Amino acid sequence: MKWLHRFFEKRNNTPAFDKYFDRFADGQNVAGVSVTVDTAESISAVYAAVAAISETVASLPLDVYRRTDDGREKARTHPLYALLHDAPNDWQTALEFREQMQRHVLLRGNAYAEVVWSRAGRVEALKPLHPDSVSILRTADDRLLYEATDRHGRTRRLLPEEMLHLRYHSDDGVLGRSPLKVARDTVGLALAERTHGERMFAQGTKLSGVIETQAGTTKAQAGEIRESWAAGYGGVGSHGKTAVLPQGAVFKTVSMTLEDAEWIEARRLSVEEVARLFRVPPVLIGDLREANYSNAVELGRYFVTHTLRRHLVMWEQSISRTLINDSGTFYAEHNVEGLLRGDSVARSGFYQRGIEDGWMLRSEVRSLENLPAIEGIDDAKETPPQDAATPPKGSPDAPGSDAAPSKGKAA
C-alpha cells in the first residue's frame, strides 16, 4: 500500500539531481512597478477573481463515496470523510483549509499540505504548508521528494505519500504556474495604471506642466513661486481651484490629462484582462456593464463549467491519488447541483419530467431540495392535479364527452 513506503525509504540520503522551487515571490519590475503576489493581490480585480473561485470551491460539499453494486453511497465512516467535510487539523475548518489551498493554487501555482498518516494506514490530519517554504527534489529513479522548512528554520524531507500537492498549469509536470506568473506584464500594467491615478489625485490639480516666468527671475524667486503653487493647489482638496499666477507668469501644459489618456477606459480594460486570466465572468468580479437578470442563471452555469470544473477535478483526482488507499472502492466528489440548478419554475419542470419519465423518484427530488423525507412518498399513485373548474375526466360534463351539452343554440 502507498502509505507503507514511508517506513522503508531512506529519505535523508536520497541523491537529488534536480531541485525545483518557485521564484515568483521575489518579484520583478514591470512597467516601472514591482510585481509580486502581494502587489498583484492588491488589485481589486485580482482579489475578487481569486476570492470568487476559492470561496466557491471551499464552500461546495466535498464528500467521500463508496461504490456499491447499485450505484454509490456516502462513506460517512471513512476516516477521510470528517477531514474533508468538517476539520482537517486542530486549528482549521474544512472551508478554511480548502480556501487557503485554493488561493495558493491561484496566486502561486502550487498548494501543499502535509499528510499525517497513522500506523494503521489512515489519514489523521492535513496540515497546509506555505509554498515559499517548500522545494521539490527529483531523485535518480524519477521520484519526487519535498523539502519543507518550518518557522524555526528546520528542514524536513517528505515523501510523495506525505504531501498533498495541487498544481495549476504545470509546464514541466513538477511545479505549477499561476496566471500572475505567466501574465506578469498584464498585472504590471494594471499596477502602473493604478499608481498613475494615485499620483495624479495626490497632486490634486489636473494641470501638469511648467510655470514660465519673465526673464530675470532669480532662482530664489522661482523656488518661492513653486512652493506657493504647491501650497495653494496641491492635494485632492485643491482640485478645481482657480490658479492665480504671479504677474507675467504663464502656465504651459506639457503632459496629457486623465481624459486625454483615457485612463478610466484603461482601468476597465484591466478588469477584463484579469477576468480573462482567471477565466471568470467579469460580472462575478464587479464589472456589471453586461449584467442583467435574464442571464444570471447562465452565468452561474458558465462559472461552474468553464471556471470551477478544472479546479474541482484537480482536488478530486489529487485526493484519490494521495489520500485514498483503496481508490477502486472509495472516491471523493464535489456536489455542484446547487450551482447548476436554475430558477424554481425551471427546476419544477425538470423534476416533473423526471418523475413522469420514470428516471427520478419523488424522494430524490425532496433530497435535492433539502426537504425532509416523507415515508411512502414513492409508493403514492400518480394523480395529476385537476382544475377545480374542470369536471373529472369521463364524466358526462367533461369536455369532449358525447353527453356534454352543446354551447350553441338548439335547433
Written overview of the protein:
Helix 7 runs antiparallel to helix 10 (about 265-280). A hairpin with a 5-residue loop joins strand 9 and strand 10. This protein has 3 domains: about 1-205 and about 255-340, no CATH class; about 210-255; about 340-380, no CATH class. The N and C termini lie far apart (about 90 Å). The strands form 5 sheets. It has a 4-stranded antiparallel beta sheet, with no helix packed on it. A 3-stranded antiparallel beta sheet has the order 5-4-14. A 3-stranded antiparallel beta sheet has the order 7-6-11. It contains 14 helices and 14 strands. Helix content is about 40%, strand content about 15%. It has helices spanning about 5-10, 35-40, 45-60, 80-85, 95-110, 180, 185-205, 220-235, 260, 265-280, 295-320, 335-340, 345-355, 360-370; strands at about 15-20, 30, 35, 60-70, 70-75, 110-115, 125-130, 135-140, 145-150, 155-160, 165, 210, 250-255, 330-335. It has about 400 residues and is of the alpha+beta class.
Decide which structural class fits the backbone: alpha+beta
Number of helices: 14
* Rg, Å, rounded: 32 Å
Pattern of helices and strands: HEEEHHEEHHEEEEEEHHEHEHHHEHHH
Q: Strand order, main sheet: write it out.
A: 1-8-9-10
The backbone outline, from C-alpha atoms, is flat
Report the span from N to C terminus: 92 Å
Please report which band the strand proportion falls in: under 5%, 5-15%, 15-25%, 25-35%, 35-45% or over 45%: 15-25%
Largest sheet geometry: 4 strands, antiparallel
Q: Care to count the β-strands?
A: 14
Q: Which segments are poorly predicted (pLDDT under 50) over 5 or more consecutive residues?
A: 407-411
- Counted up, domains total 3
**Average predicted local confidence, pLDDT:** 78
Portion in helices: 25-40%
